[in-house]
């Protein structure tokens, strides 16, 4: 039977790689490698990555609440120094099983059969997974970048559905989950560049506790005020937490990095004993 062996949260701020102000960043880049080493040690075979579109893949003509990529992958389509823009190993059969289970569980997810992913998926896929393609990626895009946003509770329930889907699979896959994005940042607003470590700590404390109630109790207005429009990406964390209920969380790295615009948080969530 397939099983979820671990979950991770990590940022995907492009400025970490562009580094226009030439700030020290080895601590943060090392966190991606730390997670990659953990994924390898766990013998993972599949990674489900939750991310947000940034008006790069989807236009105002089509804004899906949930989309699962079921075909070939490549990216990130943005050119980021140190991040390969190349094919990403995928498993269409596994992805279709997830789609079928979602459709049978009340989630009318959209699909893409050929997707050039943006940095939300491309950064974790290229930096936090083994480079030999041994871990196949299944991207899940959630409406957390542009209104109308997926409800926080619905994001958590999606993670619960993923847990059930994995339990129903007859394969022997070892699956890691990645919630990509956040933490606090303001994108394209007058507050761009602001980072709120207090909001970031509140989010990371919830992850460490394994209790999603603090995050689920937030309103979008509170998130926008304290964490910015980029803080809406905590939905991806909730999906991971929903799939790993009461999982023990550990913060692997955090910095309100002065070279970018984002509170950079990395954490691991292990299955409950």
Overall description:
The chain has about 270 residues and is α/β, with parallel strands linked by helices. The protein has one domain: LigB-like (Protocatechuate 4,5-dioxygenase, Chain B), CATH 3.40.830. Helix content is about 35%, strand content about 25%. It is built from 9 helices and 9 strands. Strands 1, 2, 3, 4, 5, 6, 7, 8 and 9 form a 9-stranded mixed β-sheet that branches. The longest helix has 17 residues, at about 150-170. The protein is globular and about 50 Å long. The mean pLDDT is about 95.
The poorly predicted ranges are none
Q: Which sequence of SSEs, written as H and E, runs from N to C?
A: EHHEEEHEHEHEHHHHEE
By CATH, the architecture is named 3-Layer(aba) Sandwich
Radius of gyration: 17 Å
- Termini separation comes to 18 Å
The number of domains = 1
The CATH superfamily is known as LigB-like
Q: What share of the residues does DSSP label as strand, in percent?
A: 15-25%
Number of strands: 9
Give the biggest sheet. Answer: 9 strands, mixed
Global morphology? globular
Q: Provide the residue-averaged pLDDT.
A: 95
Task: Characterize this entry briefly.
InterPro entries: Xdiol_dOase_suB. With 273 residues, the protein is α/β, with parallel strands linked by helices.
Feature tags:
nine-stranded mixed β-sheet, Protocatechuate 4,5-dioxygenase, Chain B, single chain, 9 helices, Xdiol_dOase_suB, alpha/beta
């Amino acid at each position: 039977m397939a099983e979820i062996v671990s979950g991770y949260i990590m940022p995907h701020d492009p400025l970490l790689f562009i580094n226009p102000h030439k700030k020290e960043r080895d601590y943060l880049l090392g966190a991606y490698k730390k997670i990659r080493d953990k994924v390898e040690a766990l013998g993972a075979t599949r990674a489900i990555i939750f991310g947000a579109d940034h008006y790069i893949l989807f236009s105002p003509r089509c804004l899906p609440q949930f989309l699962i990529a079921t075909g070939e992958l490549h990216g990130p389509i943005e050119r980021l120094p140190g991040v390969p823009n190349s094919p990403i190993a995928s498993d269409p059969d596994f992805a279709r099983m997830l789609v079928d289970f979602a459709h049978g569980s009340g989630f009318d997810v959209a699909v893409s059969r050929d997707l050039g992913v943006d940095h939300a998926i491309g950064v974790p896929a290229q930096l936090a997974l083994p480079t030999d393609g041994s871990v196949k990626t299944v991207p899940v895009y959630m409406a957390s970048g542009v209104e109308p946003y997926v409800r926080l509770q619905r994001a958590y329930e999606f993670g619960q559905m993923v847990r059930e889907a994995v339990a129903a699979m007859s394969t022997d896959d070892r699956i890691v989950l990645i919630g990509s994005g956040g933490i606090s940042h303001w994108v394209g607003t007058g507050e761009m560049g602001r980072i709120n470590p207090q909001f970031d700590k509140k989010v990371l404390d919830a992850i460490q506790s394994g209790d999603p109630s603090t995050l689920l109790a937030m309103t979008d207005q509170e998130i926008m005020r304290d964490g910015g429009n980029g803080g809406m990406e905590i939905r991806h964390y909730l999906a991971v937490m929903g799939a790993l209920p009461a999982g023990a969380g550990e913060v692997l790295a955090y910095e309100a990095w002065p070279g970018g615009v984002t509170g950079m948080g990395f954490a691991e969530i292990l299955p409950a004993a």
